[in-house]
């Protein structure tokens, strides 16, 4: 979908249909190499949960080992939340080359390197936009430091391998933060938002816009002002904007602002166009601003008990209004003056966004669209998109719609705390919306969570089979699960992630795949045979005493026998956990 209009089409978008169909051919070849015979390729989806840098590294390990074991080539969809989206997007920016991806990971974490000047430059540039929000700051100043990379490519650059079917179709999850009340009350499906190399939009509404026009301004379904496509660095910040709790994030952002106001001169010389006027005329005012920040009264709380940062907004606004007039400025160099002005504007805007706690601001492409009945969706000029982990920390809602026809889901859980919270939340979501999903008794989930194994296979009467893989489990970690969790805390500072810390986590994630390969192959085989027998069932014609002679390709039998054959061949035999690995 490359048009400049909003698309409201139920079901899959045309580009996704074509890409998935081409992927089927590659999946069939991969299954054959795995000694699985199939007439039709079953649709397998791999999901990665959130979990910050822990999820990023562990998801890379999962993808790498799945590639090594020949399993990734049998996957149709890759979907992620938060930290897993960083890993999944890296797979495509490296053209699926896992060796290069691991080498890049080792390089990034073998040194304590972060290009502050470049990150600051990108943030100041973003602050010139009318839709600047904390997501921009988070993306360029926090996530880039966490991952030690600042990708400038775009989601649309992933189209080629996806359209050729050589890599799975990727889906990146977010939620509409303005709809959080609806989510809390009724788990509204409209809350979920997805990104692919072709489109961005609300799958529950079938409402999408071309990914190249995400962020552009629309009215009544028509493009009215084009904005450049947002880069992957920004999108990673949007997808991964829920690291830790809100108060931790808030304090971190203000600490970063204060740190920026004491930048060393050499960083400024790389950041601002002309360095010779930086010293006394620019750096001194910044020090005075930093000192005024330190002297300000402590954080107050508003009537609702939430921290109130209006004082910072007012102070920054007052400083910006007066500083350029009262402070001595290098009149002979307007370029340097402009750079300093941009910096102050960036600080001011970030302070305002922090006081409002404004994230993920982008133009609403459904604004005044006549094809949308829900006025909540069409009356807003802006959307505020945030980390989907604030709803469910794994993207089940994006692969469960029947239009994607997923047969088998491999759910890799890198969450902190209870590794079955995502299963609980998804069960509740599916129950409310009558979506088929395996039901597990709460008592059983509680028991599992106390000493999780490395793999659980969940099956329902209908819907996809779910294989759930907790990252920290007794099979791999023994009695040290808590120690592993503490070592890889979600908000663990990037500076503490040395190569010696990264390697064990990568190895653990790989081992979880390798040790469960036989189970994965068995369920892939079951999915292939289920798809075959489902199609065969459609060819079974119920017995009729007056029916004419039927084509030889059809079976004629009484209805009771038809049902018996189906149940025996599929419901009993194929679903049996004791099915042998090799048939």
TrEMBL record:
It comes from the Eukaryota. InterPro entries: Acyl_Trfase/lysoPLipase (IPR016035), LysoPLipase_cat_dom (IPR002642). Keywords: Hydrolase, Lipid degradation, Lipid metabolism. PROSITE patterns: PLA2C. Residues 1-571 form the PLA2c domain. It catalyses: a 1,2-diacyl-sn-glycero-3-phosphocholine + H2O = a 1-acyl-sn-glycero-3-phosphocholine + a fatty acid + H(+); 1-hexadecanoyl-2-(5Z,8Z,11Z,14Z-eicosatetraenoyl)-sn-glycero-3-phosphocholine + H2O = 1-hexadecanoyl-sn-glycero-3-phosphocholine + (5Z,8Z,11Z,14Z)-eicosatetraenoate + H(+). This is Phospholipase A2 group IVC. GO terms for molecular function: calcium ion binding; calcium-dependent phospholipase A2 activity; calcium-dependent phospholipid binding; calcium-independent phospholipase A2 activity; O-acyltransferase activity; phosphatidylcholine lysophospholipase activity. Coiled coil: none annotated. One of its GO terms (cellular component) is nuclear envelope. One of its GO terms (biological process) is glycerophospholipid catabolic process. The gene is PLA2G4C. Pfam families: PLA2_B.
